[in-house]
Write a structure and sequence with these properties.
This protein is of the alpha/beta class. The protein is built from 18 helices and 14 strands. The strands form three sheets. It has a six-stranded parallel sheet with strand order 3-2-1-4-5-6, with helices on both faces. Helix 11 runs antiparallel to helix 12. The longest helix has about 30 residues. It binds uridine-5'-diphosphate-glucuronic acid. Uridine-5'-diphosphate-glucuronic acid binds next to helix 9.
Length: about 425
């Protein structure tokens, strides 16, 4: 397909999902116009800066700009006028009740409506509750005739840190449409990506996203609950995950026991899905249990370290890994922050290190903790190395060097089960893992 025959795309909202989507579509040959109500972000992008951390994204954005396939503008109405397909990628933060806040989506829908001068396909990509498609349709049809647009749902399944790979090599593409025209147009947009396409109606596509994230969170909490049983029985959670996960009906992914999930997606989507279920008159109590296991997992981890140190009072602890998972600088709902909070409350002295998220953490924690310049500097003179996020560099630590610079009782608290318990205890460390006592 020549670029001229490709539909032109607008992406509204250049957060993580929007910018990755735009840069990837540009790399596939589309002309993509990006717009955001935060004009500072647009200015930054136009100067070659990137407002978020995502491996590979700066290079992809730069290439898109150089090839004139990626454009950042401030005028949403103008960008809509020149586009065939518009992806809504704005934030849907949780309200205090846990419900998703759709204010930004509603605002964008009315702005898009004002730019409609010919047929447009409006696609929601942000994670939104069921019925958001209907809401967008009712807003836009307040301005223009329904023949001039369709609303579709095309949920994203992009992991932070691996978002570009996930976009180009998805397990599946979900398309929720209400017309043949919308289906054909979205299929054209994804024609260059090899993946099974699930075509359904808008509402069903919307719910698939919530079900996917909730199920993945369920798997993590399930294995973390099993890990607690495993600790009580003296069995090995790593082997349990392997033995169970090799069953293709279950799958090995998301069965890594640890200190639980964080980030902006799982906790938020569990709450949002709970509210959606309530709207459908179902009390989805299982989702609350998934959350409870996750939240208490951090305290469970600390309850295993405490007896090794006797008390946390005045103990020096090196905490490695601050982002909610490796490959991102995102500290939203990061387990590290909860653990640090608890340690400080019990009188511990905490020194922290993370390869990418230190600046973000400094804003939140200020002088409450000390900041290491590298892992070894962080560990020096501490009684406990507490591994919270499994960055590769931590897995490759020289443990003899670590042991020499630490103090008794040489505790390794391994919140992600990355070290070999036999190896580290053989070296004279006291080892605390999850589900492998
Ligand atoms: C998640 C989904 O995986 C994406 O498909 C989805 O598009 C995205 O949310 C979203 O809704 O935007 P993400 O939050 O980036 O992506 O992170 P994941 O890689 O899924 O990990 C989530 C959390 O689970 C992390 O804290 C991770 O450490 C934890 N986890 C994961 C475990 O504790 N154990 C595991 O076995 C796997």
């Amino acid at each position: 397909m020549s670029p001229a025959s490709l539909p032109s795309i607008s992406v509204v909202g250049v957060g993580h999902v929007g910018l990755v989507t735009a840069a990837c579509f540009a790399s596939l040959g589309f002309t993509v116009t990006c717009v955001d109500s935060n004009h500072d972000k647009i200015d930054l992008l136009n100067k070659g800066g990137i407002p978020i951390y995502e491996p590979g994204l700066p290079e992809l954005v730069r290439k898109g700009i150089q090839r004139k396939r990626l454009v950042f503008v401030k005028d949403i109405v103008r960008s809509i006028k020149t586009s065939d397909v518009i992806f809504i990628c704005v934030g849907t933060p949780p309200k205090p009740s846990g419900e998703a806040d759709l204010e930004a989506v509603q605002k964008v829908a009315s702005q898009i409506a004002q730019g409609i001068n010919s047929y447009k396909l409006i696609v929601e990509k942000s994670t939104v509750p069921v019925y958001t498609g209907e809401l967008i349709k009712s807003i836009v049809s307040g301005y223009v005739n329904e023949d001039l647009f369709d609303v579709a749902s095309n949920p994203e399944f992009l992991r932070e840190g691996k978002a570009i790979y996930d976009f180009i090599h998805p397990d599946r593409i979900v398309i929720g449409v209400e017309s043949e025209r919308a289906e054909q147009l979205l299929k054209k947009v994804y024609a260059r990506i090899k993946a099974p396409i699930v075509v359904t109606n808008v509402k069903t596509a919307e719910i698939i996203k919530h079900v996917s994230n909730s199920f993945l969170a369920l798997k993590v909490s399930f294995i973390n609950a099993v890990a607690r049983v495993s600790d009580g029985l003296g069995t090995d959670i790593q082997k349990i995950s392997e033995g169970v996960g090799l069953d293709t009906r279950i799958g090995r992914a998301f069965l890594n026991a640890g200190i639980g999930f964080g980030g902006s997606c799982f906790p938020k989507d569990l709450d949002a899905f709970y509210h959606i279920a309530r709207m459908a008159h179902y009390d989805f109590a299982l989702l609350n249990e998934v959350k409870t296991i996750n939240i208490t997992q951090r305290d469970y981890f600390l309850s295993k370290i405490r007896p090794v140190l006797g008390t946390f009072q005045d103990k020096k602890i090196a905490l490695l890994g601050l982002s909610f998972k490796p490959g991102t600088d995102d500290i939203r709902d990061a387990p590290s922050l909860v653990i640090i909070d608890r340690l400080l409350a019990e009188g511990a002295k905490v020194k922290v290190y993370d390869p990418v998220s230190m600046e973000k953490v400094k804003i939140v924690l200020g002088k409450d903790v000390e900041y290491g310049s590298d892992p070894y500097d962080t560990i020096r003179n501490t009684e406990c190395l507490c591994l919270v996020t499994e960055w590769e560099m931590f897995k490759r630590l020289n443990l003899s060097k670590v042991k020499k610079s630490m103090r008794k009782p040489y505790c390794i608290a391994d919140g992600r089960n990355v070290f070999d318990p036999d190896e580290v205890t053989g070296m004279g460390f006291k080892y605390v893992g999850i589900g492998r006592s």
